[in-house]
Amino acid sequence: MVAFSNKKFILKMTKKGYKQTKQHKENIRTSRLKIKKKLGFLNSPETRKKLSESRKGKHHSEETKKLMSESRKGKIPWNKGLTKKNNPDKIKPTSEKTRRLIRKIAKNNGYGKWMLGKKHTEKTIIKMKEKRAKQIITKEHKKNIGLANKGKHPSEETRKKISLANKGKKCSEKTKKKIRIGMIKYIKEKCGGMVPMIGKNETAILDTIEEIYKYKIIRQYHIKKLGYFVDGYIKELNLVIEVDEKYHFDFDSKLKEKDIKRQKEIEKELGCKFLRIKDNLLEENPL
Predict the structure, then answer these.
(1) Rounded distance between C-alpha atoms, residue 244 and residue 227, angstroms
(2) Distance, CA of 134 to CA of 148 (rounded, Å)
(3) Which residues pair with 274 in a beta bridge?
(4) With the C-alpha atoms ordered 245, 248, 250, 253, is the resulting torsion angle positive or negative?
(5) pLDDT tens-digit profile of 203-258?
(6) Hey, is 229 helix, strand or coil?
(7) How far is residue 218's CA from residue 128's CA, in Å, rounded to a whole number?
(8) Considering the entire predicted model, what is its pTM?
């Protein structure tokens, strides 16, 4: 133990509400370390166990947590930026023996299962979402995640859980757009391109319009920013042509809500005019 010769100082320390200065704390730490080094003193396993048990179930107060957080602010962790590749001397790979020991301790103490059967509160879920939204995942990180999950498939039980968790949830328009663009990109990379579905009378109708009005119609025009394909597009007129089959209409022969939304998105993006033609036009009005 560190001996204090000054009696006044000892009395001052024992007074209620006394706070040690940073310098004083540092001095105590360094002096204790010197004594430990001199004597080669280390706590016995029995003492460590007693210390561990005495602290069990105790939690720091919010005030203490804040003080600890503030004291660590601005300090750079010793292992920041260090990896096994760039600094093999400091970051040594964990041996198989150590891994086995960690697994054994975790199994005995039930680590990894502490949230089993429990649910996060709404407040915690919001906090987690906000934290993830601020995180920037690099392309390299995404690639590593993809490689790590390659060949892995969720079990039937996990699929059911995911399905139940997503039941009743609807994707936002932003998410739908991302999914569309991602799927088109994936098909192009894996299959060399994609051909959208063409209606029964679509080609004949567009050919007829080309013949009468003498304008070149770009077939299956791809609006990359939105991830949509339109049946036809006349660049000179900035005109989009859609040939609608029966399934685009409801029981009252009105255009479905999703098609109206889609049209508005395209009009906003291209600033174009829209021409909708029913698929059975030529059947009802043959030339």
Answers:
(1) 19
(2) 23
(3) 240
(4) negative
(5) 999 999 999 999 999 999 999 999 999 999 999 999 999 999 888 888 888 999 99
(6) strand
(7) 46
(8) 0.47
Query: Which residues neighbour 211 within 8 Å (Cβ) at sequence distance 6 or greater?
Result: none
- In contact, 18 and 12? CB cutoff 8 Å: yes
Spatial strand order of the sheet with 273-278 comes to 218-223, 228-234, 239-244, 273-278
Q: H helices of 119-216, where?
A: 122-134, 139-148, 156-165, 173-191, 202-213
Length of the chain: 287
CA 287, chain centre distance (Å): 56
For the chain, domains (ranges, CATH) are 1-38 (no CATH), 202-284 (3.40.960.10)
Strand pairing class (228-234; 239-244): antiparallel
257: its two tokens: 């809500």
- At residue 42, what is the residue type? L
Q: Which two tokens stand for residue 287?
A: 């030339």
CA 66 to chain centre: 28
